[in-house]
Design a protein that fits this description.
- This protein is α+β, with helices and mostly antiparallel strands and 109 residues long.
- It has one domain.
- Strands 1, 2, 3, 4, 5 and 6 form a 6-stranded mixed beta sheet that branches.
- The longest helix is centred in the middle third of the chain and has 14 residues.
- The protein is globular, with a radius of gyration of 14 Å.
Length: 109
């Protein structure tokens, strides 16, 4: 993972899995203002799709790293993006999917 990343955004379904909740519950939490979400277009093999990403707090990032290590997968992400929130700018990373490979750094202690 990039050292200068300030915000990590995980796919909505991954957040649901990490928190042991349904996707529907996570969507309700977003609607209620308990979670922050944005949409991004993600390029697939043959087409593009719009995906919802949820801002991950440090405890969720730690759970994601542990799960990656346990499953032997590494995250794939979009290029880094500068995001403005209020008057501040943050370097953001959007994890789009996970692939079976050994991670170097991410999920390792």
């Amino acid at each position: 993972m990039e050292a200068n990343v300030e915000l990590v955004w995980l796919p909505l379904a991954r957040i649901a899995a990490l928190q042991g909740k349904s996707v529907k519950t996570i969507r309700r939490m977003i609607e209620d203002g308990n979670l922050i979400s944005v949409k991004r277009t993600v390029k697939g093999d043959k087409s593009h799709t719009n995906k919802s990403f949820v801002l991950a707090l440090q405890d969720t990032i730690d759970l994601d790293k542990q799960l990656c290590h346990k499953q032997g997968v590494i995250p794939q992400y979009l290029g880094l993006e500068m995001m403005q929130i209020n008057q501040d700018e943050f370097v953001s990373m959007f994890i789009t999917s996970y692939h079976k490979e050994r991670a170097v750094g991410y999920g390792e202690d």
